[in-house]
Amino acid sequence: xxxxxxxxxxxxxxxxxxxxxxxxxxxxxxxxxxxxxxxxxxxxxxxxxxxxxxxxxxxxxxxxxxxxxxxxxxxxxxxxxxxxxxxxxxxxxx
Length: 94
Description:
Blueprint: H1 4-10, H2 36-55, H3 67-74, H4 80-83
């Protein structure tokens, strides 16, 4: 991604307070397809995200992410429906 300072200039109406780094520190470690090597770290991020999401006061939240992240997130649940692979630009209601 672009540096955070540039993004803030273009989107001044958005709260970026939870973005902690100027540069994208995860870019070089991203997964293109789920692999055991990086899957453990992605699963940990998915669990942290889930705890963060559950603590939010909103009743409805749109979550936009990559299918690899969703794969790790939904592996945490025992549900065949949640284990189905996401298609490109797919939307699901949970």
